[in-house]
Amino acid sequence: MAVKPRTLFEKIWSDHVVSLGDDAGSLGDHVAASHPGAPAILAIDLHLVHEVTSPQAFTGLRERGLQVRKPGQTVATADHSMPTLDPSLPILDELAAKQLRQIEENCREFGIPFYGKGSPTRGIVHVIGPELGLTQPGMTIVCGDSHTATHGAFGALAFGIGTSEIEMVLATQTLLQRKPKTFRVQIDGRLGPSVGAKDIILALIARIGIGGGTGHVIEYTGEAIRALSMEERMTVCNMSIEAGARAGLIAPDETTFAYLKGREFAPQGAAWDAAVSRWRTLPSDEGATYDRTITIDGGALEPMVTYGNNPGMGIPVTGRIPSLTDVEPAARADLQHALAYMGLAPGSAIAGQRLDVVFIGSCTNGRIEDLRAAASVLRGRRVAEGLRVLVVPGSQKVKKQAESEGLDAVFKAAGAEWRESGCSMCIAMNGDQLEPGQYGISTSNRNFEGRQGKGGRTFLASPVTAAASAVAGVVTDPRTLADVAAQPVAVWRSAAVEAH
Amino acid sequence: MPEPFAKTTSRVIAIPRANIDTDQICPARFLKITDKAGLADALFFDWRFTPDGKRRKPPSFIDERHNAGRRILLVGDNFGAGSSREHAPWALRAWGIRAIVSTSFADIFKGNALKNALLPIVVSPERHAALVALVAANPDGEWTVDLEAGQVKLPGGESFLFEIDPFARTMILAGTDEVGYVLSNLPAIEAWEAAHPARVDTARA
User: Fold this and answer.
1) In the CATH scheme, what is the code of domain B7-195?
2) Between residues 37 and 56 of chain A, which touch chain B (CB distance below 8 Å)?
3) Which SS3 state, helix, strand or coil, does residue B63 take?
4) Do the beta carbons of residue A71 and residue B201 sit within 8 Å?
5) Cβ contacts (< 8 Å) between B52 and chain A: which residues?
6) Quick one: average pLDDT of B156-173?
7) Contacts of B46 in chain A (CB under 8 A)
8) Under a CB-based contact definition with an 8 Å cutoff, are residues A136 and A269 in contact?
9) Which residue ranges make up each domain of chain B?
10) What is the pLDDT of residues B105-134, one digit of tens each?
C-alpha cells in the first residue's frame, strides 16, 4: 500500500494524538472514548511556564484539588516582570514582586523545576528552552506565551496557550486541539548584505498581513532558510504569531543536530544516536501537500522597518511610508489612525525618522549572535548624543557568553546600557519602557500601541539596523556604513567560537 | 466554576477598527495581578485614558454614556491579535461583554474567549458591512444572541445563523469546562504515555 506523503507538521501531530475525538477516521492505537464534537486530545512533551500567565492556573488546580501531572515535563522561569537592573536590589514594584514570589511558591508546592532570580540559567523562557537542550525536534511544546512558536525552529510543534489551557496541561499533560491547516512559506535565494532572519519574517508579515496565517501552522522552507543558523531560525519562527499563525516550523537538519549536541538536557551517548535517527525521519516527505504555499525571493529582500501600529506595517528601510491613496479605501481609516499615533507623515521616507531610544533584546533578537551583530556595528563607534540605548541579553547564559567575548565592553564604550536578562522593554512590565511620545527602534516583535510603554512609538527592525540607527540617532539603512555593507550578516553573527 | 450561558439580549457597541490586538484590550501593565480581579477597569485602558491618566475627550467607545451596560461588540477583522494573555477575555467579561461579532478572530484569543463563555461570532464581510450599517442607522436597536439556536436576531425581525465550535458550545451551555472531560480519558492518556516515553526530564539534577 502506498503511504501518503506527510508534512513535518502531520508527522508530529499524528505522533501525539491520544484521541482523535470527532475527527476520528482512521483510528490510532490509543483511542479514547469519544464525545460528540470533541476535539483531538494532544499529548504535550514539554510545558514551559512563566510568572505572568500562570498564577490563576495554579489557583485553579488547587480549587480542583489536583496535582501537576508531569512536573518532570514542566519547567518554569521568571522573565516578564523581572527587573534588568542590579539583581541585588529589591524589587520596588509590589505587584511584580508578589508575582515573582508566587511563581517560586507555586513551583515549590507542585514540584516544578524553577530557574528564578539568581539562577545562572534564568532567562527569557524561549531563550532558555533551546539553550538548555530542552527544546528538541519532533516534540510538542506549549507555554502561556504567544512567542512559543520560537521552538518550531527545531522542528517541534510549539504554540502559545491561554491560562485555562495552562491549567489543562498542568492537570493532564494534554490539550484539546482542532487540527490546524498547513502553510508552506518558501524563501529562495541568498540574502544580501545586512539582510537577516528578522528581515525575512518582517517581509513575510508585510506581505500576508497580521491575520494572514490564522488557522495555519507555517513551515518555512527554501535555500535562504536552510542557510540560517539555529538562532536565526528561532527569530523567523518566533514571529510566526505576528502573521497570525498557530505555529512556525523548520525541518531539523545537521545545523539543528550540531546546535543540540552536548547541551544539558539533550540526549547523550546511545540515546543521542537513536534520537538523531528518529529526528531524521521528521522532514516533510517528497510530494507532501500543504493547504497554502507562497514563495518569496530572499535575494530581493532588504533590511525592513515597521512604520505603523502592527508588525504587518513594514517596509524596506529605503522605502516610503504609504500614503492614504496607496491602500484600499476600506483600510484608509486604520492607516490614518496608525500614522496619527506614530506622528509620521504619509509618503515620507522611513530612513531619517528621529529616535529617542534603541532597544536590543527580547526572545526575537536577544541571543548571542544578535548581540555579536549589534556589537560589530557599535565597535569603535558612539551612539548618537542624547539617545538612550538599552542592550538586554535574552538569558543569564547569553549575558555571561557576551561578557566572555567582551561585547559588554563594546556596548558600554559606545554609550549603551548593559543589563541583566529578561523580556524588558519588549513588553514594558518591569520598569524598562518608552515614555509617552518617545520613538524607539526595537529588535523585539510588537509595535502595538503602548506595547513598549504607554504612548510610546515603536519601529521594529533587526539588530544590525537598530545598531546602525543607534549610531546615527535616526532610522538608518545599515548598508550606508561601509564596513557593515561589506559583510554578510552571517559572518558577524558567528564572530566568536560557540561555547555552551 | 462558570455559570451556564445560553442567550443575551443587548444593544451593540460598534468599534470600526481592524486588528485590535490584546495589548489594546488589556495593556501589559495590568498583567501583574495574580487573580482575575479589577480587570473591568483595565479594558481598553489606553483608549479611555491619556498617558497622564485623564479620561479622553470625547470619551472612547466603551466610556460613551449610552454604551454603558451593552453586552455585544461589533468589531473589525482579526480581533484579538497578538499576545496570548487570557486577561483580554477576562477583561471583556468583567466589563460585561458576552458576544463579539467580527469577520475573523485571532486563534489564541478565540480559544481563550470560548473558555470564558465569551462568544466569538464570525460573519462574512458582506454580512459584517450590513451589520455596521445597521448599527449606524439604529444605534439603540437590541440584538439577541441565542447560543442554543446558533442564531442572532436583529431589530426589525431579521436574523442570521452562526457556528460555534460544537464542543465549546456544549461546555458553555452546561456551564462547565473541559478538564473533567479530559480527566475521564486518563486511561487513554496513560496508554499513550506507556507507548511514548517522555522525551525530556526537566527534574534531572
Assistant:
1) 3.20.19.10
2) 37-39, 41, 43, 45-46, 52-53, 55-56
3) helix
4) no
5) 436
6) 95
7) 449-450, 454-455
8) no
9) 7-195
10) 999 999 999 999 999 999 999 999 999 999
